[in-house]
Write a structure and sequence with these properties.
This protein has 498 residues and is of the alpha+beta class. The strands form five sheets. Strands 1, 2, 9, 10, 11, 12, 18 and 19 form an eight-stranded antiparallel sheet that branches. Strands 3-5-6 form a three-stranded antiparallel sheet. It starts with a strand and ends in a 7-residue tail after the last strand. About 19% of the residues have low confidence. The structure holds cobalt (II) ion (CO).
């Protein structure tokens, strides 16, 4: 999820003005949608001290080679399983098209081998029993990731060592001891990371031109819930699935009735989150089928990695921004015979993360000239960068889908009964985590737009409308969640994909 520059009153006004032309034909009443856009979009990101409910420290858990191997094997099994399922589906479709009745799904020896490999790991295990190792992952996924880690220890992310004045941290026994106190919490967030990796691996086989975005989001969210073993606010989706297209950089997810279909020439940012005990993994990548966008996508991937490489304890936020911009703007992309410089989207940024708080107060700029505030030991950051062929500046536009309770809003008296009951639902289902209209639909809320508007007007809930650069341009994003451990920087959400 993107951090947008705070206090953007002008953007809200512009969005409201641009509204009528821009409304997608959703079920929403135009007046209600406009009202939502009129609500204060002022992102007063408070510096909240967020050491909320951390689990008590217990024995330190170490990731063994065995655990890593188990994780790799589980991923491989899942991949084989997906490949096999896809082949079967393709073969079945082909057979159907030929109307010959010949299934032809037996395929070659390779298919058989894949099937054997997929089944092999599990042997004759039954997944009906809670005990014992599970069989291969199903398609769609239904077996929680933790069942593949019977030790309860989840794989470490990518480790990057601190440099210069902080190089001593790598081998400090004292700091290592301090780290052990947090090992349960870190293991929890690693579990969320593993879920994120497996959800995206599953979705990468599914996301194709022609898919309806609302179906894609549904599938991704179902997979996320199943793999994390969702349970109320204890474990589940951390925020709505962003699938912003082209000049829309962030905060778009379909509302009900939105029939947008992904096309071969779209550039889509898939931004989704997983949380366990409020520990959020916020991680995103860019999907583009047409290879003409490769230079744009690569520029942003490199820029995000430059930001990650620069981040560290005592590093000034402005220095991360400068490093990102340096890399991003060393790239260009040619589209339709015209060369575009790739610009950083200067009013989008990364952000610190705290328990149940996606934007915890510190912004990580992606251009130079930002704040000199320093990153600190123990902090989580979402390092995310956005590149654009447009102006490199976003404003709010289109119908709003994303909302979130204001983390610092205390008790606010509400007169409207519908607002009060909606707030009760929000408190129960999402707490201070971000949600979207589809999530309200799914928990049985109907005709909630007026109540939602009242909550926004009262400042209890903030709307987060889509953030858009100029029409006709393309934007890309990559994002990872990192932890500044005492002895090293851990890129929690790193996978073999990005
Ligand atoms: Co984010």
């Amino acid at each position: 999820m993107a951090g947008a520059e705070a206090a953007n009153g002008t953007a809200a006004a512009a969005a409201a003005a641009a509204k009528p032309a821009a409304e997608p034909a959703a079920a929403a009443v135009a007046a209600e949608a406009k009202a939502a856009a009129d609500a204060p979009a002022d992102a007063a990101t408070p510096a909240a001290d967020a050491d909320a409910p951390a689990p008590p420290p217990t024995a330190a858990a170490e990731v063994t080679e065995e655990d890593k191997a188990a994780a790799a094997a589980a991923r491989k099994r899942a991949k084989n399983q997906r490949k096999k399922a896809n082949k079967k589906a393709n073969a079945a479709a082909a057979a159907e098209a030929a109307a010959s009745g010949e299934p032809g799904a037996a395929g070659g020896g390779r298919d058989g081998a894949a099937a054997a490999a997929a089944a092999g790991g599990g042997g004759k295990k039954k997944k009906s029993k809670k005990k014992g190792p599970p069989g291969p992952q199903t398609d769609p996924p239904t077996i929680p990731v933790h069942r593949y880690f019977p030790s309860g220890v989840f794989p470490e992310g990518e480790i990057q060592h601190y440099r210069d004045d902080n190089a001593y941290r790598t081998s400090s026994a004292e700091l290592r001891e301090r780290e052990r106190l947090e090992s349960d919490m870190v293991n929890t967030v690693r579990q969320a990371s593993e879920v994120h990796r497996q959800v995206r691996a599953y979705m990468k086989d599914y996301i194709k031109p022609g898919v309806k975005l609302i179906d894609m989001c549904q599938r991704l969210e179902d997979a996320n819930r199943a793999l994390v073993d969702a349970k109320g606010l204890e474990a589940g989706i951390a925020f709505p699935t962003g699938c912003s297209l082209n000049h829309v950089a962030a905060h778009y997810t379909p509302n009900s009735g939105d029939d947008t279909v992904l096309s071969y020439d779209d550039v889509m940012k898939v931004d989704f989150g997983t949380q366990i005990n409020g520990r959020i993994i916020d991680c995103a990548w860019t999907v583009a089928f047409n290879p003409r966008y490769d230079p744009l996508v690569e520029a942003v991937r490199e820029a995000t990695n430059a930001g990650i490489a620069t981040a560290g304890i005592d590093v000034r936020l402005c220095d991360v921004g400068e490093a990102v911009q340096e890399v991003m703007e060393s790239h260009e992309v040619e589209l339709d015979g015209k060369t575009f410089p790739i610009k950083c989207v200067r009013n989008l940024n990364g952000h610190s993360i705290a328990p149940y708080q996606i934007h915890a107060g510190k912004s990580v700029p992606i251009v130079k000239g930002g704040e000199a505030t320093k990153m600190e030991e123990g902090e989580f950051f979402a390092i995310e960068t956005f590149g654009s062929t447009g102006k490199g500046y976003v404003r709010e536009d289109y119908e709003c889908s994303h909302y979130m309770k204001n983390f610092d809003a205390g008790h606010v008296p509400l007169r409207l009964p519908r607002a009060r009951s909606l707030l009760a639902t929000i408190d129960r289902e999402f707490g201070t985590l971000a949600f979207c209209r589809r999530f309200l639909d799914r928990v049985g809320e109907t005709k909630y737009l007026m109540g939602l508007k009242a909550l926004c007007d009262a400042g209890v809930v903030d709307p987060y409308p889509p953030l858009c650069d100029t029409r006709g341009c393309y934007t890309a994003q990559f994002e990872h969640t990192i932890l500044l451990r005492p002895t090293c920087k851990e890129v929690l959400s790193r996978g073999d994909d990005y």
